[in-house]
What we know:
TIM Barrel, Elongation Factor Tu (Ef-tu), domain 3, 2 domains, 8-stranded parallel beta barrel, 8-stranded antiparallel sheet, globular
Amino acid sequence: MPVVPELLAPAGDLEKLRFAYAYGADAAYIGGGDFSLRSNAGCGLDVLAEACSLARRTGKKLYVAVNIYADNHDIAVLPSYLENLAELQPDGLLISDPGVFRLAQQYAPRLPIHISTQANNTNWLSARFWAEQGASRIVLARELSIAEGAEIAQRSGLEAEIFVHGAICISYSGRCLISQFLTGRSANRGDCSHPCRWQYVLEEEKRPGEYFPVEEDARGSYFFNSRDLCLLAAIPQLVAGGFSAWKIEGRNKSAYYVANVVRVYRAALDAYLRDPDGWRCRSAWLEELTRVSHRGYTTGFALGLPDADAYRYDDGSYLRSYDFTAVALEMRDGLLWLEQRNHFAVGDVLELLLPDATNIVLPVKAIYDENGCLLDAARHPRMQVAVDCGSLPVMLPFPLICRRAVRES
Ligand code: SF4
């Protein structure tokens, strides 16, 4: 019997967490305030408490990231933070720093510890080392192939977690000082300003201030930028690898991104588990993955060393073809109630995302405010409006995400 992997989603906040679970994630990981590697996606203890409670109510799992490389001054405040986390009882902590690992064992002794990818786990012997220290899971370095990761899964005595989708660093996962050097914001404290994705020019030593453009495409050049990882087509190899969890990157991405990527991997994995021999990577799934913000896709190191294609662009910037338009809340009196996230107007065509990776097309025929007055558009963030969009199936698993194709400018 193959190991059935846990589909593990990013959750930058409670809304993303709800949608991650609703669209098919078995588990999610969330940042814990100052001690997470995505400082913008870090949550306070009150939010973490609600997140743990949501996970329990829905029968899903939740892991809390405490994966900074700690400085001396962090050591004084980590014990009380870890004790607070212990009381919340998430399903595990994500840690990279051996010092933080020791403190977690002391102050949150019942919580399983997952060793973060940030610890650069590249071989079974170092994984076994972490097993002997008491870790329960190892998150594999993104610089490994599926075959190398599978060997670690078999020989380490630990659960092995592999990244299957999302942004990757041009440097060795997180071992990068470009951001710290150029902006004072440290990638190792979750505060990367992403300078690897900036545009650069050439300057000759004796002509200061004279910049020579270096162009890969019409928009400029992005020397250090990588495409995003996508292993959807490698599902057979991933299942054969025996990984306990498949991780999607992107705690700073939108709820729309999380929902859409999760539902595609859910649908593709379930289809494979039902019928491995008949499984094909459907073009509709791949197409959905191009409808979220991304920078072109690569398989990275998963199938062997990446070729030049991994770092070459059709367009060096983010590709974004759809906007997160609204959250669909309910059907009432024949109208669909939406909470706005981006401007939409009468005449637009929205799409409702269903958890099975299909969509319902919604032509917006009329928009009403809460008092029943007609509007030409939903202009304000989070305003609730009722939309006449024709007939819809009666039983829909609300709340659902609505999107709209980006308008041509
Ligand atoms: S600058 Fe780029 S390569 Fe460096 S840590 Fe940030 S995202 Fe990764």
